[in-house]
Predict the structure.
Amino acid sequence: MNRLFPYPVLTLALFVMWILLTGFSPGHVLLGGLVAALVSRTMLSLKPEPTGFRPSLAIFRLAGLVLADIVRSNFAVARIILFKPAERHSGFLHLPVELRNPYALAVLAVIITATPGTLWVQHDARRHVILIHVLDLIDEETWIRFIKDRYERLLLEIFE
Amino acid sequence: MIQGPDLPTWAAVIVGLLLLTGATTTLIGTLGLLQLKSFYERVHAPTLGTTLGAALILAASMVSFSVLQSRPVIHEILIGVFVTLTTPVTLMLLARAAIYRDRSEGASRVPTDGPRRTPPA
């Protein structure tokens, strides 16, 4: 199994993508399976670091949380743009993180940047601090606790 | 100019509503791009278009073509996935470029890189 499909998740993702793009038919299942199996093998020559990914229910919890937060902050940012509340001020935020896994950090970067109102600016790998710009920075502590409790805890569960 | 004459009314209403809400969300985002004051604030605005705006327009497309072709058409999900994965890359690159310029100009409103702690011996 591992010899044949060294990256089963990637193989599956490629196969699903092929089927979504071409439509479901026996020929495309065969062709897509072949392409997925062969193309995912090219990763062998790249030798990526092991991701430390642990499939668990936490993934779905995280996905749900992120979706809800994206919708909510869409409204929050739209309100700021349309009604220009006077007391709002934006600013930078230093978020200390316990995450060390580069893949987990990448996921956190996508989450924070994809959510309107927060933007990942840089990650200091020496001090393990992330610099985030927040559009509506009310209280630094609240934001730090929010990100740590909601995302980081789950990411620590998903990636070892 | 009617592109979907075979679309039943109920589907047309759903597709229309989804499209309009999505387009409005994206429009609000672009208004923010015009209106917000600093560069770092402006970077936040277009994310409205790449998240909820894009999602609603893709949903409209899925409903429309699923009804027209009487089978589930869901490859729009791929567009959503790739938009979500790639937008942060550009946004981060822009923010990094801006902060690099501000720091090299010695602007006071951006945090400095911070003292580098020496690793424990």
